[in-house]
Amino acid sequence: MTKPYDIVVLGGGVGGYTAAIRAAQLNFSVALVEKAELGGTCLHRGCIPTKALLRSAEIYAQAKEGADYGVFASEVRLDFTRVQIRKTEIVERLHKGVQFLMKKNKIDVYKGEGRLMGPSIFSPRSGSVALVTEDGEAVNLVPGHLILATGSKPRMLPGLAAGGRIMTSDEALRMEDLPKSIVIVGGGVIGVEWASLLRDFGVEVTVVEFEKRLIPTEDEEISKELERLFTKQGIKVLTGAKVLAETVSQSEQSVKLQVERNGVIQDLEAEKMLVSVGRMAVTEGLGLENTDIIVDRGFIKTDDFMQTMESHIFAVGDVNGKMQLAHAAAHQGIAAVERIAGLNTHAFAAQLVPRAIYTRTEVASVGWTEKQAAEKGFKVKTGKVSFRALGKALVLGNSDGFVKVVADAATGDILGVHMIGPHATDLISEASLAQVLNATPWEVGQTIHPHPTLSEALGEAMLAVDGASLNM
């Protein structure tokens, strides 16, 4: 059976379903193809379930600290089964919400594994999507435009495979019991979030990172502060360390491995091992060989408007490798559809996308780091304010961290904002808006921030760029 559509979206994650909704709003006929569950990695194996676990871990850790606030509980007990149930309930509720949105916007959803076809009697162009539905029906979807949003999956170290005591984040989310100890290979975003939540649950955690610092894509001062806080929490951090994959072995009780650090071999042993060394695009089996689409280092190559070498085919989200964040994928999906519709769209700019890491304490940033700005030729000036100066942070009992602003000394424009502190992921949006509006630190600093709030830190850091901070 052949069905024509204005737009076909292959992949039902955040980038895909957002693109489908925007297309429906613009009165395009839309089909969405998803081989598993609507919501993709973010909803089912990433953003949402991990944040649910992080919240339970935070509550557990704070409950044990209740005496500091004058609150004494007779017993603080962790029921990890209930933690997992709550996580599942949240995911299922949001999943139903996505399903409702598909029906509300009259988007035809096909459950099956789609494959791109070359030119045929059905279409003179490549990009038709062939699939077999759950009911065993063979369908050929012929789009005016095609949007690829097939996402990504965990990358594994060469020579290793998930199984037994070795996990990726996918398997970790399905744990029925907490291990007493774990080695986390990879100190990027995923690795440090798992390190934070597992430590708050009482697990002995060791993080092994190949680069010289944790979260190496963030500002160096942020990395240094996160490592300090991790050490304070009892997390063992080994940076500049290479896992020797050939030494990894499992037994009924533990997993053993060796790491090389500064030329010295070190033995590690734990109940579990979590490998979090990045994610790779899902492109296998898509039929890309039937098109002129270029795959570069495993990712589908697009221009800054998400357009591939086939002008009627776009790729959004993790699969294009520009920025592996759910909100970036959603933004790209909207931009692709509006480009198709002939609307005025802006080229994707990674430096305008906020980044959020949900450790306890949180990390958030937007724009360039101080080092990146200097490498791009800017003469930079910076402002930095500690959360220790804020009454609200002291009231919350979490005054660790700081806000750092990087600005252009010549023009005064904000080049980057970097935060590590309480609720940093909620505070970063103001900095993102400031960058979109080409605001200067003085303008943001002159904005009245209510007292007592955590947002005062951003205002003070902006003033600090010109030495005008009032509370530091």
Tags for this model:
single chain, 472 residues, alpha/beta, FAD/NAD(P)-binding domain, Enolase-like, domain 1, 7-stranded mixed beta sheet, globular
Number of strands: 24
The CATH class of the largest domain = Alpha Beta
Query: Regarding quaternary structure, how should these chains be classified?
Result: single chain
Approximate helicity band: 25-40%
The number of domains: 3
Structural class: alpha/beta
- How much beta, percentage-wise? 25-35%
Specify the number of helices.
13
Summarize the structure in words.
With 472 residues, the protein is of the alpha/beta class. The chain folds into 3 domains: 2-153 and 280-350, FAD/NAD(P)-binding domain (3-Layer(bba) Sandwich); 156-277, FAD/NAD(P)-binding domain (3-Layer(bba) Sandwich), CATH 3.50.50; 361-464, Enolase-like, domain 1, CATH 3.30.390.30. The protein has helices at residues 14-25, 40-45, 47-64, 80-104, 169-172, 189-200, 220-233, 326-340, 370-375, 391-396, 424-436, 441-446, 456-464, and strands at residues 2-10, 30-34, 108-111, 115-117, 128-132, 138-148, 152-154, 166-167, 181-185, 204-209, 236-239, 241-250, 255-261, 264-270, 272-275, 279-281, 295-296, 299-300, 313-315, 355-357, 362-367, 380-386, 402-408, 414-421. The model has no long low-confidence stretch (mean pLDDT 96).
